[in-house]
């Protein structure tokens, strides 16, 4: 005789055949599309966490996220009120925002907001969190039992994911890792005692799951469908809510899906499984809660109240007003500085920097030192589609945007004994592994102290005073300064034609095709800090979360080759014989500009470079002084005290804020430097050089709008989301973070994998430091040129037309600005009021 549960299972098995598995799989795919990839902390690339919503208008996406999470992804009332009472947002900005909102929503039934009404709204206290309008079964369980089952399940899934994806941190390895994630979990979780905390029938459900995860998806979904009828839209909502509860680990797995699609190689994905694996695991926990006592009709989306909707809408208008105020200030600055001369006709030096907002500050101070130095902004990978394999490393690091696939792998080599240096690095790795093994052993409190105690304490004391980095300096990997200086990239594996193509493409796209100075510097940038799992978040996003120094070395080395110059001369770029290309590193933590010395300099070159170096040093000093006003505990310091303070920040193992990174980023300028050279943009602007007169076929503009503009949007939205909701879209409090699997961090001893930025990167004293507004993209080109690119690329069209960023065209001749809004160009001085 069959028991009741067996009868139910038989009924469900039968219904699997009657349900529409194609529809279920499509719902999963639609829910998965709303998820963005997440890279590990070694390659912590900034990602727009809303990238999966790009096909939805920004306002609609914000509403959907609130319905499925309860999180209001708009800035706080206090943020808006402070700006209004200080006069930064004016009545004009607010009236303009209302007009823009009315044009955007285009609904005659939508009530028109009045300024007074909006002002009164932000003076009200923060409303209580609203109920979820999209729920899963664990949410219903929590409501009914005043429990925390959703959090418990999230932690369970996180436990299994961290064990499975661990990359060497765990002392005890999980068995069955040769199987994909779903199979590994299915074979082991039934023996885990903690499963009793979910439901007594959980083990029985797991053992009954089909071997194939897609079949398991249908099997589990059908159990739900046998109890409640959900249409396709409701099923997609339910699936998204499940994904959202494990968004960190799901996003990490989504990275493998993203990379497989980009490269066309799904071998790794086949080995570990994909997003379907973690989703089915999460679904299994949810379906195990399926009981008669739960009102399943509450799974269906409920409508937001009029009060909830208006709350989002009025705050959205305030966001529009904040952005309008920023544009008004920038446009006023442009109108006063548009015709300033750029540099002398024959510059002494040209320095190419990444478009990173931190470069805006150092570039401005260099230009203030001398009118004979031209600075240029270009994506920090300098057009080098490569990955670089360090000497002694087993794998290479991607050195170009994650949107692109590296075309070449270049190895690091040395003039000294290569084998000896490789051995030195292997000793370093072995030593580091031993330290980690001792630290994580079951009697670590005794063995670690006995083995390394006194020397370790001495290092910690030294590092506390900023004189030395703690532990082992990972950045040098056991090599001395002299040994490091002997390292260089092995270019012998690249043929002449490829080198010439790389060099020509880089110079052409950065606009450096004539009027070469005697010295051209390429400054890649990188950060420097200790005991910082998020260190790569401060490095170059265009270099996939690594320092751009390797890219600068590569391009400078290629361009110094006579054969390469001869090749590109035939293509129309004539580099003078006396032009010298140099590579360098912009250390953004210390505000240092260090360029690589080369052999064979004559006396005249040594004198010139000494003079240029003095300009760079003075600019660095000014840059430190400006940046010190924004860093806690550094405002009253002067050089050399500032130098020591910034050195301390990079060496101190307890420093939670080595620098502010790209905080306060707000705009992206695609224009001639002449337009912005005399303007203080406050370290808030990405700067990419562009001259429309030299881009008749729009190929440069197309490249900028389809690559750097996308990357800057990702950065901007990551900072936006991390500021507003640091615990879900950010990485929470850095002090409470623990590294897991060498992949990322969790909060405390259990949580979902954290993504985004820590509170210390975007907030200070409980207040916003970063100002969460959407990226304002200024392009010095005709509106027709910009329209041509928008129409040609769906991704660009989605981001622009759905208001994930705002476009402002600057007419190259009149300097008049137009705002792209509601699929049309508006003159905000006149047309917006009609």
Fold and architecture overview:
With 834 residues, the chain is an alpha/beta fold. It contains 31 helices and 19 strands. Helix content is 47%, strand content 10%. Helix 26 links the parallel strand 10 and strand 11. The N terminus is likely disordered.
Termini separation (Å)?
77 Å
Helix content: 40-55%
Low-confidence stretches are 1-18, 439-450, 470-474
Total count of strands: 19
- Determine the number of helices (DSSP H or I, runs of at least 4 residues): 31
Q: Which key terms come to mind for this protein?
A:
5-stranded mixed beta sheet; 19 strands; alpha/beta; 834 residues; single chain
Condensed summary:
This protein has 834 residues and is of the alpha/beta class.
Topology diagram in text:
Blueprint: H1 4-18, H2 21-33, H3 58-69, H4 77-85, H5 91-105, H6 115-122, H7 137-145, H8 149-165, H9 181-188, H10 202-207, H11 213-225, H12 232-245, H13 247-263, H14 267-272, H15 275-287, H16 306-337, E1 349-353, H17 357-369, E2 373-377, E3 386-389, E4 397-398, E5 408-414, H18 418-440, H19 444-464, H20 481-485, E6 487-489, H21 496-510, E7 519-526, H22 549-559, H23 562-569, E8 580-587, E9 592-595, H24 603-628, H25 641-651, E10 667-671, H26 673-676, E11 685-689, H27 699-706, H28 708-724, E12 737-740, E13 744-747, H29 759-762, E14 763-764, E15 767-768, E16 776-780, H30 783-792, H31 794-801, E17 806-810, E18 817-821, E19 824-826
Helix pairs in contact: 1-11, 2-12, 5-16, 8-15, 9-15, 11-15, 17-24, 18-19, 21-23, 30-31
């Amino acid at each position: 005789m069959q028991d009741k549960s067996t009868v139910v299972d038989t009924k469900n098995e039968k219904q699997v055949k009657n349900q529409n598995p194609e529809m279920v799989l499509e719902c999963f795919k639609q829910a998965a599309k709303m998820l963005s990839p997440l890279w590990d902390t070694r390659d912590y690339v900034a990602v727009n966490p809303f990238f999966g919503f790009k096909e939805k208008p920004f306002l609609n996406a914000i509403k959907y996220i609130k319905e499925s999470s309860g999180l209001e992804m708009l800035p706080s009332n206090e943020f808006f009120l402070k700006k209004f009472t200080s006069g930064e947002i004016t009545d004009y900005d607010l009236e303009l925002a209302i007009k823009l909102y009315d044009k955007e929503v285009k609904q005659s039934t939508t009530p028109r907001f009045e300024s007074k009404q909006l002002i009164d709204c932000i003076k009200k206290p923060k409303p209580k969190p609203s109920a979820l309008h999209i729920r899963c079964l664990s949410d219903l369980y929590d409501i009914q039992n005043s429990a925390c089952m959703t959090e418990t399940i999230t932690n369970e899934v996180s436990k299994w994911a961290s064990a499975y994806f661990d990359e060497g941190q765990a002392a005890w390895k999980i068995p069955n890792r040769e199987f994909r994630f779903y199979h590994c979990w299915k074979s082991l979780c039934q023996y885990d005692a903690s499963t009793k905390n979910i439901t007594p029938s959980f083990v029985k459900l797991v053992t009954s799951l089909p071997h194939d995860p897609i079949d398991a998806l249908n099997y589990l979904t059908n159990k739900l469908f046998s109890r409640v009828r959900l249409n396709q839209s409701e099923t997609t909502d339910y699936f998204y809510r499940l994904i959202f509860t494990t968004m960190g680990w799901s996003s990490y797995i989504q990275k493998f899906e993203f990379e497989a699609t980009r490269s066309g190689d799904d071998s790794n994905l086949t080995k570990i499984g994909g997003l379907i694996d973690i989703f089915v695991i999460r679904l299994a926990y949810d379906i195990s809660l399926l009981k008669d006592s739960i009102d399943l009709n509450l799974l269906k989306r409920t409508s937001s109240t009029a009060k909830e909707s208006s709350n989002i809408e009025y705050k959205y208008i305030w966001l529009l007003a904040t952005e309008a105020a920023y544009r008004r200030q920038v446009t006023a600055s442009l109108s006063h500085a548009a015709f300033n001369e750029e540099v002398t006709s024959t510059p002494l030096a040209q320095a190419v920097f990444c478009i990173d907002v931190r470069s805006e500050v150092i570039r401005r101070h260099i230009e203030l030192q001398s009118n004979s130095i031209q600075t240029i902004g270009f994506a920090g990978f300098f057009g080098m589609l490569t990955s670089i394999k360090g000497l002694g490393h087993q794998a290479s690091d991607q050195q170009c945007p994650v949107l692109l696939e590296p075309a070449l792998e270049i190895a690091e080599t040395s003039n000294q004994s290569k084998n000896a240096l490789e051995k030195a690095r292997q000793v370093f790795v072995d030593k580091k592994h031993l330290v980690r093994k001792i630290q994580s052993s079951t009697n670590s409190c005794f063995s670690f102290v006995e083995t390394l105690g006194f020397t370790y304490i001495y290092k910690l004391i030294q590092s506390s005073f900023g004189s030395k980095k703690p532990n082992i300096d990972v950045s040098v990997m056991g090599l001395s300064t002299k040994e490091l200086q002997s390292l260089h990239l092995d270019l012998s594996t690249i043929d002449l034609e490829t080198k010439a193509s790389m060099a020509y493409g880089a110079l052409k796209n950065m606009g450096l095709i004539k009027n070469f100075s005697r010295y051209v510097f390429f400054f890649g940038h990188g950060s420097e800090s200790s005991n910082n799992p998020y260190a790569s978040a401060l490095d170059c996003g265009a270099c996939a979360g690594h320092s751009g120094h390797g890219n600068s070395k590569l391009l400078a080395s290629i361009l110094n080759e006579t054969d390469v110059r001869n090749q590109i001369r035939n293509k129309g770029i004539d580099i003078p014989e006396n032009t010298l290309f140099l590579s360098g590193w912009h250390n953004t933590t210390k505000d240092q500009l260090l360029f690589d010395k080369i052999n064979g300099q004559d006396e005249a070159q040594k004198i010139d470079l000494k003079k240029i170096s003095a300009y760079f040093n003075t600019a660095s000093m000014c840059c430190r002084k400006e940046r010190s006003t924004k860093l806690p505990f550094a405002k009253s310091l002067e050089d050399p005290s500032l130098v020591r303070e910034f050195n301390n920040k990079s060496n101190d193992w307890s420093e939670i804020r080595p620098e502010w990174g790209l905080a306060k980023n707000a705009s992206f300028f695609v224009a001639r430097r002449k337009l912005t050279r005399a303007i203080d943009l406050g370290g808030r602007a990405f700067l990419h050089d562009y001259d429309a007169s030299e881009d008749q076929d729009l190929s440069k503009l197309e490249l900028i709008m389809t690559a750097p503009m996308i990357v800057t949007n990702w950065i901007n939205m990551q900072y936006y989301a991390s500021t507003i909701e640091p615990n879900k879209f950010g990485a929470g409090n850095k002090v409470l973070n623990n590294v897991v699997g060498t992949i990322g961090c969790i909060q405390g001893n259990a949580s979902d994998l954290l993504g985004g930025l820590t509170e210390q990167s975007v907030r200070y004293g409980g207040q916003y430091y970063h100002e969460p507004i959407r990226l304002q993209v200024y392009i010095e080109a005709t509106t027709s040129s910009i329209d041509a690119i928008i129409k040609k690329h769906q991704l660009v069209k989605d981001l622009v037309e759905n208001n994930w960023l705002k476009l402002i065209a600057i007419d190259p001749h009149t300097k008049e600005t137009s705002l792209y809004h509601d699929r049309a160009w508006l003159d905000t001085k006149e047309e917006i009021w009609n």
